[in-house]
Design brief:
Length: about 500
């Protein structure tokens, strides 16, 4: 076929069939077998942080959808280009299409969460895609090429009709396939099977005095559905608790393997712990407070008996993420947990179902591994974690921080008394004081809600009376129990968290 446009269309439709058919068949195999998910998933760690960060900032939690769409569109464009080439060099183009089809197969093979059988859907998809390509390219090869125009018309019609039908079928297969299913996964369904035992030690009830009664202030405990989500997974890995296990290995005397039944049979403790992301911008919402149910990591490590020279535990997730945690944070008396529950229910898939780590006082990227399957006892001078390899610090304790939640930025408030409230945290130390100032005034101490534990955030409120009408700024800073004052110095989050005082503007009418 010497018609570049139709050839390009043939290439695009063949690609759509490849991905659509593979994606549909992957429903029977699970997310690791879906080529589009596997490709998207592989691109994430390859993409430079400088590129990923703005996309995340721009698209928020829709970043995963954006990535999948871009990957899919990229594949279709590539298919079209190869098709276009086929109008000149059919054999070369067919070979290129085969090579391009091998890429997702190789990617699936090397992904940590997949097994060899997971390439079957893509192999079938590739075969179908190639067959479609040959079929569409064969249209009009004989007569149109000889240049008898009238004869070309019915063949042209037939080409577009058949291409339309096949393209629609490919798109329908994609819509019904594993990628869409994984991206729209119903959190409840995967989790419902797991029945958590009653805690051996329950967390203390939250006193009402922990939460100043100010409208617009975040609740003391974050609802799991409002809890921030940060990870490198396109779709949360689907893990059958019955197939899950945790292996403790590396510099240990005895390797330990724990199944879900083992874990649920142990006495589990409940603790309120505030989790924070190192990427949280000043005043941001990548922080949440939950009641976690789990088994002390300290006890698990004791069973394995780590070597004295070990200074780090590299926790690995099923999807290839890893976090480097100083071993003392997992063996000292803090409440580091191998958690299975969050606010009274099993972990939602996006928060690590069926098991994750929660370590008080350390940012999530060096401690809070979700979908955790391995604890590798090692040394900082021997191993590095996922984000360490991408320019972030290997160790990252949470810094004292605070934010204003009331009034909302640029809110218009009535004249008279203005109430101000927010949240502050300084895990491992506890919040001693929160200072607030209006415009360029003096710092005044806010009234603190009661401390639940040093590892949970502390909410605060204050007020200013007789505020003049017009635009005002309110600024907050926190001081921890060791006397560390939150620094006003602005810096970006890489390599170990943004700093600076949060301030917002509001106007009095
Ligand atoms: N498997 C896995 N675990 C992970 C991550 C990840 O990318 N993959 N991200 C970490 C980061 S950076 C943070 S801040 C916390 C966030 O936990 P959440 O999504 O439950 O709030 O999870 C940590 N655990
Ligand atoms: Mo994070």
């Amino acid at each position: 076929m010497r018609r570049p446009f139709r050839a390009a269309l043939a290439g695009t439709v063949a690609t759509l069939v490849l991905f659509g058919a593979a994606d549909l068949i992957a429903r029977a195999f699970g997310p690791p077998a879906a080529p589009l998910l596997a490709l998207g998933q592989t691109i994430i760690p390859l993409a430079p942080t400088g590129l990923v960060k703005p996309v995340i900032d721009l698209f928020g939690t829709n970043d995963k959808l954006f990535l999948i769409l871009t990957t899919g569109l990229g594949a279709l464009v590539l298919g079209g280009l190869i098709g276009w080439l086929a109008s000149q060099r059919l054999r070369l183009a067919t070979a290129l299409l085969c090579v391009a089809g091998l890429v997702p197969i190789i990617v699936i093979l090397i992904r940590p969460e997949s097994s060899v059988v997971d390439i079957i859907p893509t192999l079938i998809g590739l075969a179908l895609g190639l067959a479609v390509f040959r079929l569409l390219m064969s249209f009009g090869t004989s007569r149109t090429e000889t240049g008898t125009a009238p004869a070309a018309e019915p063949s042209r019609r037939r080409f577009f009709i058949i291409t339309g039908i096949i393209g629609t079928a490919g798109a329908a297969a994609m819509a019904a396939g594993q990628t869409v299913a994984a991206l729209t996964l119903d959190a409840g369904a995967a989790v419902a099977k797991l029945v958590l035992p009653k805690p051996a030690t329950t967390a203390p009830p939250i006193p009402t005095s922990a939460h100043p009664d100010v409208k617009g202030l975040a609740p003391f405990l974050t609802d799991p559905k409002d809890f921030y989500r940060i990870d490198t997974a396109l779709a949360p890995p689907v893990i059958d608790p019955q197939e899950w296990s945790l292996r403790i290995h590396g510099m240990v005397e005895t390797e330990v393997t724990l199944t879900m039944d083992d874990l649920l049979g142990l006495p589990l403790d409940e603790h309120h712990i505030t989790l924070t992301c190192v990427s949280n911008p000043v005043g941001g919402d990548l922080v949440g407070n939950a009641t976690w149910l789990g088994y002390p990591v300290r006890e698990l490590l004791r069973r394995a008996n780590p070597n004295r020279d070990a200074d780090m535990v590299l926790s690995h997730s099923i999807d290839g993420f890893s976090a480097s945690t100083p071993i003392e944070a997992l063996t000292d008396d803090r409440d580091s947990l191998l958690a299975v529950g969050m606010n009274g229910s099993p972990l939602p898939p996006e928060h690590g179902f069926p098991a994750r780590l929660v370590v008080p006082g350390l940012y999530g990227f060096v401690s809070a591994t979700k979908w955790v399957t391995e604890l590798e006892v090692t040394r900082f001078d021997e191993k590095t974690a996922y984000w360490t390899d991408r320019g972030w610090d290997a160790k990252a304790p949470i810094l004292v921080a605070s934010r204003v939640e009331v009034p909302k930025p640029l809110a218009k408030v009535p004249a008279g008394d203005v109430s101000v409230a927010g949240t502050a945290w300084a895990q491992r130390s506890g919040i001693k004081r929160v200072d607030v100032k209006l415009d360029d005034g003096e710092w005044t101490s806010a009234e603190l809600g009661d401390e639940v534990t040093i590892d949970t955030w502390r909410q605060w409120k204050t007020g200013f009376s007789d505020v003049d009408s017009g635009l005002h700024t309110v600024t907050v800073r926190a001081i921890d129990q060791d006397g560390n004052v939150q620094t006003p110095k602005r810096r970006k989050s890489i390599p170990n968290s943004a700093t600076g005082h949060h301030h917002i503007q509001f106007s009095v009418e």
